[in-house]
């Protein structure tokens, strides 16, 4: 990752953009809901042959929220495309984690002339907006909106949702509890509610018409990013490669290492020594 991010101004939102500035293969890789460029760095195999660009989405990482509403996956995808334009990236591989995977899928479907390939890590959406697996984000946001943060966290920690997640998806639970600790918890609650109720806007038919190399990565012990979601996307997108990795809740280091290896292998197999122009 570059030593310091650059800033792209979108409306009145100052967005941080990280660009490794090296390598012949441009890859735009986006974080998940509530994530940042550090999350991307854990999952992406940065090396000299790739040039990776990551935009920290509005009200996430070090990016400002701006005044434009509602927040949406379409808004974030447009921001990413604007950052690609500013960086001079005409064609690129689009990828991301969870929400970032939804952004990447939208870019691949809406801008086929620009997207060379697609990487989706732990996707949370198939083709319907407001999937059930995103409801815990709404639950957290509603508590943040109506109660002091400490009280809201305590109530959620003892909820039926938290009880289930504690036994079936402890890593998801840790992320959800962390949202109560954010400095911008109130504005981020807006983001959570909007994104959890949203979708990427790509139909099953449109996904079935994609004609780019695609990698879909999923894992178990994850209620927010069901393994079945990753499998379904891999089945619908023509010739997509599916990879199942060790659950993050079981072994974080192995989880990240396997994701980086899968992405690196996919990129090298499909794009090594290719000119993206």
TrEMBL record:
- Which Gene3D superfamilies does the record associate with it? alpha/beta hydrolase
Which GO molecular function terms does the record list? hydrolase activity
Location of the AB hydrolase-1 domain: 26-255
Q: Spell out the InterPro entries in the cross-references.
A: AB_hydrolase, AB_hydrolase_1, AB_hydrolase_fold
Q: Does the keyword Hydrolase apply?
A: yes
Keywords tagged on the record: Hydrolase
Q: Which Pfam families match?
A: Abhydrolase_1
PANTHER family per the UniProt record, alphabetical: AB HYDROLASE-1 DOMAIN-CONTAINING PROTEIN, HYDROLASE, ALPHA/BETA FOLD FAMILY PROTEIN
Q: What is this protein called?
A: Alpha/beta hydrolase
Q: Which species expresses this protein natively?
A: Mesorhizobium opportunistum
């Amino acid at each position: 990752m570059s030593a310091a991010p650059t800033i792209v101004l979108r409306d009145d939102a100052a967005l941080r953009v990280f660009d490794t500035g090296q390598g012949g293969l441009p890859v735009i890789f986006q974080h998940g809901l509530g994530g940042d460029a550090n999350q991307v760095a854990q999952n992406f195999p940065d090396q000299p042959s790739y040039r990776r660009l990551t935009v920290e989405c509005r009200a996430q990482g070090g990016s400002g929220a701006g005044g434009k509403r509602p927040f949406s996956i379409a808004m974030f995808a447009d921001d990413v495309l604007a950052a690609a334009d500013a960086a001079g990236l005409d064609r690129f591989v689009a990828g991301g984690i969870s929400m970032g995977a939804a952004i990447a899928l939208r870019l691949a479907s809406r801008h086929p002339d620009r997207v060379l390939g697609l990487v989706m890590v732990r996707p949370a959406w198939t083709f319907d907006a407001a999937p059930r697996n995103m409801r815990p984000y709404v639950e957290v946001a509603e508590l943040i909106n109506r109660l002091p943060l400490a009280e809201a966290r305590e109530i959620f920690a003892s909820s039926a949702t938290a009880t289930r997640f504690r036994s079936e998806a402890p890593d998801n639970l840790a992320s959800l509890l962390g949202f109560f600790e954010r400095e911008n918890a109130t504005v981020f609650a807006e983001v959570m509610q909007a994104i959890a109720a949203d979708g990427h806007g790509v139909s099953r038919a449109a996904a079935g018409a994609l004609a780019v190399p695609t990698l879909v990565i999923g894992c178990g012990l994850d209620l927010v990013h069901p393994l079945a979601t990753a499998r379904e996307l891999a089945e619908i997108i023509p010739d997509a490669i599916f990879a199942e990795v060790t659950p993050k809740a079981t072994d974080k280091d192995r989880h990240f290492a396997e994701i980086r290896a899968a992405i690196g292998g996919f990129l090298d197999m499909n794009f090594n020594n290719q000119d993206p122009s």
